[in-house]
Amino acid sequence: MNQTTQNETKLLPYYCILYGMSVGLGGIVALVAELKNDLGFSDFDIGLTISCGFAAAFVSSLVTAPMADRGHAPLMLRAALTLGILSLITLSIGQDLWHYLVGRGAYGLALGSAYPAAKRTVIVADPERIGRNLGRMGAADMAGFMTAPLVVTALSALISWRFAFIGIAILLFFLLPTTFKVQPDTAEKDEARKGLNGLLRIKRLNGALLITMAMFILIGAFEAIWVLELDHRGASQAFIGLSLTIVALPIAVLSPLGGTLAQKYGARRWSVSIWMIHAVVVLFYGFVPGLGILIGLAFCSGVLEGFGFSAASMLVSAAVPEDRQAAAQGLMTAVEVGTGAVASLVLAAIYSSYGDTLAWLITAFSMMILLILGYIFTKPEDLKPVRPGAPLEKLRRPFE
Q: Which end of the chain is less enclosed by CB atoms within 10 A, N or C?
């Protein structure tokens, strides 16, 4: 078995774990309409529940991510899966709003711990193929999100929407043995226990985080508004589940290719270009009538997200040394979920008070502003472009 094959085999458990965690997140998103219709939650209650999950992941990623730089990634993944199972059980039996705040918050804690731990290993295991590997991780993530609506729709139809949460918890339980197959990476460790210290003084890292914020304003809006939008337009639970799969499918399929292309041509230009086009597509969400055209635009968004999914993680990775990878990715996760929390809460309130058109317009223009700032902050200091395909130090290419 050659080194490349060994690396791919080593990373497979990480992909499986993230797949399972994403199934749980996708299931929660897909069942939002049920919480509103069966339990009488308001649009603001839904936004608050989602924001609680984002906020919990924000805290978890900042507190736990540096532990992965010290070799504790396997333990973090085991803890994340266990907590995820308990949170899904809470969601399945909950009756009041606070039950769902606790359950969604616990799942946020699990996600905030799992993602930085997995990302560090995926990044340091094979730096020459970082784009492809991050793309595969993104594909596993989106495959889980794509599977979830089908699973919860089937379980809801056959038994009940409450049992759908139990079904996903069972899946995570069967993935628990996988966490005992993951091993600490052999890359340089944070022996000095620097953690997050000094990271925000790195200009290129701040630029990468601004690009990340642009991405997660959209994701926060999508999680808070999308299902409510479809429900408002008369979509059934089955159609809502199918729509989520349609949106996620191109992301899962195209992420490895998108990561490879971002590494080849430069993640900076690649990510900003892809997400700027994406923002233009989002501008039209609130103007198109009916369900068909809206789903078509969402599919285009999925294609664009598939191509641009991995580039921001590459920019974050390139901005810091090897022993700070998990801390930087944890900071990125915190920015992701913090942005998503604010966006979901604010945009849910705007959607409830003023409708979808204004909510999607604010989403699109916010993305554009952050992308422009991110492009400026990540500009190479010597201002010299790099010719595609030219041999160069591995940390330079992503900033072209």
A: N
Token output for 78: 């085991």
Can you tell me which residue has the tokens 């774990």? 17
The residue with tokens 């992701």 is: 336
Q: Judge residue 186's burial from the number of C-beta atoms within 10 Å of its C-beta, 0-12 exposed, 13-18 middle, 19 or more buried.
A: exposed
CA distance 254 to 276: 18
Backbone region of residue 385 per phi and psi (left: phi > 0; alpha: psi in -120 to 50; beta: other values): beta
Q: Quick one: which of 311, 19, 287, 313 has its CA closest to 142?
A: 19
Residues whose CB falls within 8 Å of the CB of residue 346, separated by 6 or more in sequence, listed in order: none
Conformational region of residue 355, where left means phi above 0, alpha means psi within -120 to 50, and beta covers everything else: left
Contact, 66 vs 193, CB < 8 A?
A: yes
The number of C-alpha atoms within 13 Å of 140 and in the hemisphere containing its C-beta is: 20
How would you write the pLDDT of the chain (400 residues) with one tens digit per residue? Answer: 445 555 556 778 888 888 988 888 888 777 766 766 777 777 677 777 777 887 888 888 888 888 887 778 788 888 899 999 999 888 888 777 778 788 888 998 998 888 888 888 888 777 778 888 888 888 888 888 778 777 877 877 778 777 888 888 888 898 888 877 776 666 666 666 676 777 888 888 899 999 999 998 988 888 777 777 777 777 776 777 677 777 778 888 888 898 888 888 888 888 899 999 999 998 888 787 777 788 888 888 889 988 988 888 888 888 887 778 888 888 888 888 788 778 877 888 888 788 778 988 999 999 999 999 999 888 876 555 544 443 344 444 565 5
Question: Please, which residues have CB within 8 angstroms of residue 6's CB and are 6 or more apart in sequence?
Answer: none
Taking the alpha carbons at both ends of the chain, their separation in whole angstroms is 34
Q: Which residues contact 267 (CB under 8 A, 6 or more apart)?
A: 131, 310, 311, 312, 314, 315, 318, 397, 398, 399
H helices present in the chain, as ranges: 3-30, 32-39, 43-68, 73-93, 97-125, 130-158, 161-175, 203-221, 227-232, 237-265, 267-283, 292-308, 311-318, 325-354, 356-377
